[in-house]
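Support reply, case 0932

Customer input (verbatim):
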Amino acid sequence: MMTVDAILEAAAILFARDGFEKTSTTRIAELAGVSVGSLYEYFSNKDALLACLIKRHCDRMLEHVEQRLRASQDCEVMTALAVFVDSIHESYAMNIPLQRVLIEHLGRLSKPHHFERVSGALISVLEAHLHACGQEVPRPDVRQALYVVECIVESLIHRSILFDPHFFHDKLRDELLTVSANCLGLPAERD
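Our regenerated output:
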């Protein structure tokens, strides 16, 4: 697996720095310290590399959200919502240039069932945390409201990375929390 990790890390570096179109599998193999033949043993083409990087980002984001919510000692709904929004935002902020490339190619490469799995898992993590805390959300269908929250958070993060990076860094977190609180029927005050 070290070879696969080295190839993925090299691809991430080059895609972020040079873009998807300008990056060749030869350059990825060189940076990873493997032959092009070795790269093709694991990945059939650049699209396969990019699809794997998208999946890896989603899996790491889900793990980060789970860890942050588990570590949260506060059971207030707004605090849990803030942790949820912040941890997703942090996952994207780790490498904005790479995220831009991943987002640009998202629809072309990823399978709908993968998005459904990740979205459902993110919703379930937040729902389970709120349930474990015994907190009531003033909405009749909490899961549906959390679905809307997750969709809004992901969509606005994607759009701000692509079209308004200053908004991503400056104001997006607060706006996401306000909109998310509204979806759950809560006042948007953050402690």
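We compared this against your earlier run and they match. Two observations from our side: The CA atoms of residues 10 and 32 lie 5 Å apart. The longest helix spans residues 46-71. Please reopen the case if you see a mismatch on your end.
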